[in-house]
């Protein structure tokens, strides 16, 4: 009993130390990026504002069978926040995360409100309260004397670590090209690694799933692609270093924390879902027999670790802001959580049905056909061979549970998921990949047993 308590105590200390180090890294990296003078990025921000104004708050891509939307509204906000950093007061700037701030021009400051971010009255739709972030950024960068600044302190805004250096070198359109190239390279690396370490059909499952949520269109939004890039990087690290990662709970704890640091509540669940699928695929590729108890324990471990890392990191930002800058952010955050997570007018079934309509229909049809055809062909090929269906079903259990991750997320964050359905639907990539993996495993031969017989 004492040995067990010591082990728990050591593990707890490791998590605490890791968390402290992570928060330290976040603060230092934001501090360093905030030292870049906004004058270094002024020309690129001005050109970026022109691109964003031409595109509008939301860009639609006509895919013939549907329109895929990118929320440039938030990209305009992010660029505004990046430009509004005052390098003479870096800590205050990145903690409070103001927009519209220009030293010597700004006269009025507004703290982070309970619900929506504020904006200059000229850029608020009086009839419905909608904000025009792209127009406001354009006006700020083209000489309009905007004197009111608004804080958005509830988030870490970790993307500033990446965005500010990029804006010092490139404008918005070029940054999009860079993000497209990075995503393409990461997808190629992941495809090759999964093909080599697992098999081709599993590698294709990832590609099909990501295509179903139009991953390459997502690269056109800084706000939306960063969390997918983190998910891809996390999966690649697992594929390369799995045997050297001794504390898988710690690994997912760190991923959850980084997700909270860089994301503005777009689709953070993909970093848990995609990486969890990768983890169990690698785990099963090396085991001789399915172990349901082990799967459940591992799922609980990584799920709790990711959630604690995500939630604790976010809460720490509220505490730091309230303690050191006297903003009543903890109460406001609680109000936001209540507001975003519940809505009596929205049913979970309606939310799921609406999400499904946003998926790429051609890819979805292909997915369903592949699953059906693959099961039939596999049964026919292995008809006379011994297939351990019972063991295969056991192997499908972790993926069946992961399949429901997005549904649980929708149930918890219902209001936010419904309002922003045109990008929150993308967490369904987790369910699509899980479904294909289940279809590929359920009737497959037990390769390990087959090798033993030979």
SSE topology string: HHEEHHEEHEHHHHHHHHHHHHHHHHH
Q: What's the number of domains?
A: 2
Oligomer: single chain
Broad shape: globular
Overall average residue pLDDT: 88
The residue ranges in which pLDDT falls below 50 over 5 or more consecutive positions are 447-454
Distance between the termini: 45 Å
The amount of beta strand, in percent, is: under 5%
How large is the count of helical segments?
22
Number of DSSP E strands: 5
Q: Which properties best describe this structure?
A:
2 domains; two-stranded antiparallel ribbon; 454 residues; 22 helices; mainly alpha
Structure, described:
It is a single chain. The chain is mainly alpha-helical. Helices cover 69% and strands 4% of the residues. The protein is built from 22 helices and 5 strands. Strands 3-5-4 form a 3-stranded mixed β-sheet. A two-stranded antiparallel ribbon has the order 1-2. Helix 7 runs parallel beside helix 10 and helix 16 (361-381) packs parallel to helix 21 (429-441). 41% of the residues are buried.
In short:
Helix content is 69%, strand content 4%. It has 454 residues and is mainly α.
What's the layout of helices and strands?
Layout: H1 2-34, H2 42-55, E1 59-62, E2 67-70, H3 72-83, H4 90-96, E3 98-99, E4 108-110, H5 133-141, E5 148-151, H6 160-169, H7 172-197, H8 200-212, H9 215-218, H10 222-241, H11 248-262, H12 269-286, H13 292-325, H14 329-341, H15 348-358, H16 361-381, H17 389-403, H18 405-412, H19 414-419, H20 421-424, H21 429-441, H22 447-453
Parallel strand pairs: 4-5
Antiparallel strand pairs: 1-2, 3-5
